[in-house]
């Protein structure tokens, strides 16, 4: 039970203990009645702090004492999105096991998009296993695969495709293949083609992926020919 009922404050001792992984201090503060759901003015909870830093024991202690798993900061970040953004897989799994929503609470971000943007493929599997949509669309960003390609995270793109991501999803007319071509990333182009990307599809400007790749680049050659990147490089 929270004896200190303030729901908003500046950075407090319970935030400090959670953020710095001080489990004994955190336990003492909880025993003394400090509220585990005390928020800063930016709506940062102690659980946010523990998950940002990957302090599993502190996160577990807070959850066992009633921490709000889906509390959202002023910019729409939950403890789960923070853990995903930093690749803290054990925190991600713990939050999901305790019932954190895998789809997020924001129209501009989600846990799976954050993991994709920051290059953490190991966070993708647990999210999908607990109900995250591998093709979840977010305005401007598109699907997690679009985000992975935009940030050139090959391992994340591969993981998403292995889990069934739609390789021909469109955001503002662009497919993941258009993005990879524009970035002149032959490894991404090859991966997408291997998983069935349609090189004939055009974006809103009427451009195919090969039209967006820099002339004479390996990415352009790969898009104009077939047989994979090994055939072009001789490897």
From TrEMBL:
Keywords: ANK repeat, Repeat. It comes from the Eukaryota. Signal peptide: none annotated. The keyword Repeat applies. ANK repeats lie at residues 42-74, 75-100, 107-139, 140-172, 172-204. InterPro entries: Ankyrin-SOCS_box_domain, Ankyrin_rpt. GO terms for biological process: positive regulation of protein catabolic process; protein ubiquitination. Belongs to the ankyrin SOCS box (ASB) family. This is Ankyrin repeat and SOCS box protein 9-like.
